[in-house]
Amino acid sequence: MEENKLELQLKTLPESPGVYQYFDKNGRILYVGKAKNLKKRVTSYFSKNNDSHRIRVMVKKIHEIRHIVVSSETDALLLENNLIKKHQPRFNVMLKDDKTYPWICIKNERFPRVFPTRRLVKDGSEYYGPYTSFKTVNTLLDLIKGLYQLRTCNYDLSEEKIRNGRYKVCLEYHLGNCKGPCEAYESEANYQEKIEAIRQIVKGNFKDSLLQFRQQMKAHAEKMEFEEAQKIKTKIDILENYQAKSTVVNPKINNVDVFSIVSDEGYGYVNFLQLSHGAIIRSHTIEMKKKLGESDQELLELGITEIRQRFNSTTREIYVPFKVEAGEEIRVTVPKLGDKKQIVELSTRNAKYFRQERFKQMKIVDPDRHVNRIMAQMKQDLRLNEEPRHIECFDNSNIQGTNPVAACVVFKDGKPSKKDYRKFNIKTVEGPNDFASMEEVVFRRYRRLLEEGEPLPHLIIVDGGKGQLSSGVKALETLGLRGKIAIIGIAKRLEEIFYPGDSIPLYLDKKSESLKIIQQLRNEAHRFGITFHRQKRSSVALNTELEEIPGIGEKTVVELLKNFRSLKRVKEASLESLSSVIGKSKAKVIFNFYHQQDE
């Protein structure tokens, strides 16, 4: 059974970037990994013989797979690091030390230093990141140093010590890399302005910096210093292509629970992301069955309570997509933009993927359950006496009244049954009369089924409003089938559903699966009818031209089109090739007809 459960999970994994977690039968975490494509990466563990003994042992112990979907590979990298640090999985060897990805620190001190670090010290300093490589950090710091002269010494530059002349400027001052705040050559206010500009750069706001770079580049170019100008251009390119932020980590979002919900007619799916010190440390989704048609708000409130109890969460703030009641002690935030909004969207995406996987798993394990649910829902929504397992839909096609045809498409158990589709040439109706045409085809279809003893449908749908519906009802009445088969009409404009003898239409919820299946039937009937109509129009056009040739009859036309496939090829055919199909004398007539015209 365990193996089957794993196989099922492997089949329904999303092909998106994310992080996967392996758990053993006791619920202990074995391994955390990242992937550009979750499905490919995770299935690779199970579909090949691993060289590493460690991996082989781990795969044997895997009892459950969980995953978190993220926006990009970079986010997956950062999230993997967070989860490994938090859970210390047994089979992760690489990232279990206390080192982490690099951050940029703006030190909490007078005349702050700006430097890279791997350790976060809670002393009021600001940390930006983490970055996925030191190369990115160094590029950014080089850019900052090129723009703003900052001190690199670790002196305590208190007002008193500077006033007492405790320090002397160093080589950095003489090289022009520092403006000498240690000897009061630079004011604190001026230095703080530079720090504020640097904050904007590390947050990803490069507007002012780019403007300064462009001015510098222009100045170098005007002085014919093209090498220097090119160096600055390279920095501009790096800055423009650089993205400083990640949705996975933001140091300002601290100790928050994030909840979101997606739902359908039967279930709600509530996702929970737990954030600690700005990093996601847990993702979990639960499925909740609707008992009394609860709203998303009611389900989310129930889900929040259940999940917080299950994971013993004591955080005082939650982020949600809409307002909910969560108790007086909890602050509820509905983010409108920025990183907070992105983190709620990430939670919603994980809930959606969970729902898709449940559907896929359900179809694999119990394909009938999905169909049964939809059929029961259609019976209820459309007020039918029985489930519409067999549905037929009719559509008329004519353009300016020419070549009127009709189509009948058949759905069985909610899916197209193409072998049962039928097309009709309208025989008894002159000119464009949709109502009379509908009556003719409905009558012909069910007279035929009755004569041949074939099963009748549970539901007939006619494409059109009251008029077409009345025509369909009239045909059923003539055959003695009125009341034995349910029949409805669907009007195109507002998706109104009409019932015989009822002037007030029914409007289904735009999201309902019942309406989606009716629309699919209607669109399929329209497609099938239009295709047949086009074939007939083109066929009539071809036949007309060939039949105009004296001495050429219908059988010869059919033979020619069967072999040459188009009128153009008939026109271009040589006398020999025409003769091989219809004989010399008729071939000569057709050949001369077209080639004399050409002359």
What's the count of strands?
19
- By secondary-structure content and strand pairing, the structural class works out as alpha+beta
Beta strand %? 15-25%
Helix count? 20
Q: Any idea what the radius of gyration is? A: 37 Å
Distance between the termini: 80 Å
Largest sheet: 8 strands, mixed
> Helicity, in percent?
40-55%
Please give the oligomerization state of what you see.
single chain
Mean pLDDT: 80
Low-pLDDT regions: none
The global form is elongated
Organism: Salinimicrobium oceani
Subcellular location: Cytoplasm
InterPro entries: GIY-YIG_endonuc (IPR000305), GIY-YIG_endonuc_sf (IPR035901), GIY-YIG_UvrC_Cho (IPR047296), RuvA_2-like (IPR010994), UVR_dom_sf (IPR036876), UvrABC_protein_C (IPR050066), UvrC (IPR004791), UvrC_RNase_H_dom (IPR001162)
Domain UvrC family homology region profile: 272-471
